[in-house]
Amino acid sequence: MGARWLPLTLLSIFCGAGCCLQITGIKAPRLVLTGERVHLSCSFRLDGDTLYSLTWWKDDKIFYRFIPKSSPPGAVFPLPGITVDERISSLHQVTLSQVDHRASGKLRCEVLGDSPNFEQDTMDSNITVIAKPESGPSLTGVQGPYTVGHLLLVNCSSPFSYPPTTLTWHINGHQASHATVVQYPGKTDGEGLEASWSGLHMCLQKEHFQEGVLVLRCTASILNVYKKSSQVTIFDSRYEGSDPPEGESTAGRGTSVATQLLSVLLFSLAAT
Ligand SMILES: *[C@@H]1O[C@H](CO)[C@@H](O)[C@H](O)[C@H]1NC(C)=O
Ligand SMILES: *[C@@H]1O[C@H](CO)[C@@H](O)[C@H](O)[C@H]1NC(C)=O
User: Fold this and answer.
1) Which of 100, 144, 217, 240 could make a disulfide contact with 260, Cβ separation 3.0–4.6 Å?
2) What is the 187 CA–ligand 2 centroid distance (Å)?
3) pLDDT for residue 78 is more than 90
4) What's the domain range around 101?
């Protein structure tokens, strides 16, 4: 292939201004989800030239080429993450029946004119194919009893995704300061998916407990596409309580504190 394309590329360098064939636009989504169908199109002007070929590349590898003079004119080259639907792909639109995260990267449309000028033009577009994690983040390491002066060490992990999720912590609804957060290196699988991992290290202060309760939340997100949280409620084991709510006896409350009531609530915030 190199031997064939090199002279064409060199020739196009010497073809000066005022030339003709030109790509006028490329249509490709910037952000899609794994499994989605993707339509790509590339418009161009010939201005008197004759088209030799239109080629689609993903990071320097060809996945589709259309040569009007060939029979059949369209040819598909399999690439990881890219499945071209050959039946409905042609010069003006290429359809990927499904994509996965490995299709993320630089898409390039290249148009070549025929002899004698062998004009060439290219245009690029970036695509990110998001693979959501299979489940929301999980919190580990919560081991009561806790009270003022104790060290709280909690980890939050989010399963494999692409790109990796960003993990953020909230303490009683307020974002945790960077000083309390430890970012651990993520794990990568063989296919480029990444799991993320973050820790929260803090010395519990009086102000962390509101009426004896501290709510810790870890949120995993990917751009504006994915967002899920896990939450844990931690009770101050020494909390005496103020005015118990009506119908609840002080004794009842004391008992529940004594049993180190620790509840884990998991909830999901659906992505918008
Ligand atoms: C694509 O992404 C690369 C690397 O992030 C960046 O340098 C380039 O400008 C982007 N190209 C387009 C067309 O957005
Ligand atoms: C949190 O994760 C780190 C890194 O894997 C580990 O060393 C640490 O023991 C974990 N802490 C807890 C409380 O689980």
Assistant:
1) 144
2) 14
3) yes
4) 19-130
